[in-house]
Write a structure and sequence with these properties.
The complex is a heterodimer of chains A (276) and B (314). Chain A is mainly alpha-helical and 276 residues long. Chain A is 78% helix and 0% strand. Chain A is globular. Chain B has helices at residues 4-9, 14-17, 33-60, 71-77, 80-92, 95-111, 117-129, 132-143, 148-155, 169-198, 202-209, 214-225, 227-243, 246-252, 266-276, 280-312; strands spanning 62-63, 66-67. The chains are: A mainly alpha (276), B mainly alpha (314).
């Protein structure tokens, strides 16, 4: 009996320790964001007893709002385009069987793991040739391309679970395949579409490498993630300013996580388990 | 079946009862129809992946537009910095078993359903959704010579182990590995836990009634059930260590891979060679090598993906 109690306590202790380790850096970030530079130096770990908005003011007076807007624009445009293109393709893959379909799908799945840095060398040359470096459209195109393999794969596996009879009934009633897609398949797919949207939002919002290569030269074109790295060296003595910037950059992601935890979990797990 | 369609309409009887509806004008695409649906995705993917990979290989065999055979590869492979980069990627793989074991432990503990497990699940998963650049900047602050970690250690009279985590070439890569583990652990926990929760409860009940205690229960009942998901996680994380650590290294070392080249990795090497030293041909050669390395991992990924998907779709 005693050892059972001890076992329970150990388990609780391990879980508590894990949560603390996971949370500690985030705590440091948020608490430092509300301190003054001297207040931070005096007591880096304490909660911000005398909350100051110095850090946030510094961040917002710099280019932060601009970078934030850029990130919002890039993220929404590329995720919307990805969802549209991927659901069309997924419908094509799941509705008809044609020669080479499975091979094509497998190829698509394997593209999920190609590291983006490999593609950047030629894409940069291409962008320079047609003078698209430093433009959002090229970055959006690349983002869409990188998100498509997983998106198509996930939606295809979901569309396959839609009862065949439903689609056949509509077809017999004379509905075109567009009408079936628009009025039957899409309305049934709200949950997987939201899941996919959330996972893709997360990815684009957090993406650094491509934004760094294509949008780094002009301060007004930077995304938040590129901005953060700039910010770090610009204010390297003003930790609260840096931490305020980080907090602002993290806020949308964490908000999304808090309100859509199940979508996150479902989406991230779906790569390993089945589509939905 | 599409064929049934005409048959119903032309069935004798129906013609008499209802006037035949004029079929709506429709573009007949026949067997090409799926291609039309797939085309937009195919075009984008062909550009981003297909065009790039073909161009990459071509570029890696040329210098300033002239064919040079394998010269770029020879130069890249003999560059000590590139060798260090490869070695560092290999050393990062040590994080994989650490990740698997810790994620297993936490997933099993969460699965026990102790009070507050949902809260812990949310906390443990949180690092995984944070942007890597944000994580890297925070840890940069924590791990500096006079950063928060060392201040705490000194405060606890442990000044002797307050190393220069990021500035000492001997420690920098290990510190980096720690950051990657911190960030990636939540993914494994969620993955394993989701699988455990999807298993029939009887599996565990039976073993519990048999009197199996924590260690034996999980060693012989839980872990074997997770086989394919563990394999999936191992491959995904191996791919991460070999080819997706750029963000950590770039932000923590301020784009240098330093101190010296202590945290140089293949991705950063390609980035620097192309965009800082303007040697795209050499960068292309290094990228081909990295791509080949991932191809091997893709092979594994693929087999496991198929097995897992096959196993879960009952």
């Amino acid at each position: 009996m005693n050892s059972r109690v001890a076992g329970r306590l150990t388990k609780h202790a391990v879980l508590l320790a894990a949560s603390a380790v996971a949370l500690f850096p985030i705590y440091v970030m948020v608490s430092a964001a509300f301190k003054t530079p001297t207040g931070f130096l005096d007591s880096p770990f304490s909660p911000p007893f005398h909350a100051s908005l110095h850090g946030f003011r510094t961040a917002l007076n710099d280019q932060f709002p601009r970078w934030f807007a850029n990130s919002v624009m890039l993220t929404s445009a590329s995720v919307a385009a990805t969802l549209a293109i991927a659901s069309l393709a997924a419908w094509g893959f799941s509705r008809w069987s044609f020669r080479g379909r499975d091979a094509l799908l497998s190829l698509l799945v394997s593209l999920m793991v190609v590291p983006p840095v490999v593609l950047l060398v030629p894409l940069y040359v291409f962008g320079a040739d047609i003078q698209w470096t430093g433009t959002f459209r090229l970055v959006i195109l690349i983002y869409v391309g990188l998100m498509l393999p997983f998106s198509v794969f996930m939606l295809t596996s979901f569309f396959r679970t839609i009862p065949r009879s439903l689609i056949e009934a509509a077809t017999i009633d004379g509905a075109s395949s567009w009408a079936v897609f628009r009025r039957i398949v899409l309305p049934l797919s709200a949950a997987p579409l939201v899941t996919l949207g959330v996972v893709n939002l997360l990815w684009v919002w957090n993406e650094l490498l491509i934004a760094l290569v294509f949008l780094n030269s002009d301060d007004s074109k930077k995304t938040l993630m590129v901005g953060i790295t700039t910010f770090q060296s610009r204010y390297n003595l003003d930790v609260p300013a840096i931490m305020s910037g980080l907090t602002l950059a993290t806020l949308p992601v964490v908000t999304l996580y808090v309100f859509g935890q199940r979508f996150f979990v479902r989406g991230l797990v779906s790569g390993a388990l089945k589509g939905e | 079946m599409d064929a049934g369609h005409g048959g119903v309409l032309s069935a004798p009887g129906s013609v008499v009862v209802a006037p035949i509806r004029r079929p709506r004008r429709r573009v007949r695409l026949g067997r090409w129809e799926p291609l039309v649906w797939i085309a937009p995705a195919l075009l984008v993917v062909l550009f981003v992946f297909g065009y790039s990979i073909v161009e990459l290989v071509r570029q890696s065999l040329e210098h300033k537009g002239k064919w040079v055979g394998l010269e770029n590869f020879r130069l890249t492979v003999t560059d000590p910095t590139f060798q260090h980069a490869l070695e560092h990627n290999a050393r990062l793989l040590i994080a994989v078993p650490v990740l698997v074991l810790s994620a297993l432990l936490l997933a099993v503990l969460l699965f026990e359903g102790l009070r507050g497990w949902r809260f812990h699940r949310a906390m443990v998963f949180l690092p995984y959704v944070l942007p890597i650049p944000v994580v890297a900047v925070i840890f940069g602050q924590l791990l500096q010579l006079n950063g928060l970690l060392n201040q705490a250690l000194r405060g606890l009279d442990l000044g002797a182990i307050a190393f220069d985590w990021l500035g000492d070439p001997g420690w920098a890569l290990w510190a980096m590995t720690g950051v990657v583990v911190w960030k990636e652990l939540g993914f494994g926990v969620i993955l394993f836990l989701a699988r455990l929760l999807s298993l029939p409860a009887e599996t565990f009940e039976a073993a519990r009634i048999d009197g199996a205690r924590f260690w034996r229960l999980h060693r012989w009942v839980t872990v074997p059930q997770l086989g394919s998901v563990i394999a999936f996680y191992v491959v995904v994380e191996a791919i991460t260590m070999v080819s997706w650590v750029f963000n950590y290294v770039y932000v923590i070392s301020n784009g240098t891979g330093g101190p010296g080249d202590a945290t140089q990795v293949t991705e950063l090497y390609i980035y620097q060679t192309d965009f800082q030293y303007s040697a795209p041909d050499l960068a292309a050669a290094a990228a081909v090598i990295l791509f080949a390395a991932t191809l091997v991992l893709i092979g594994f990924f693929f087999r496991i993906q198929r097995r897992t998907v096959g196993a879960t779709v009952e």
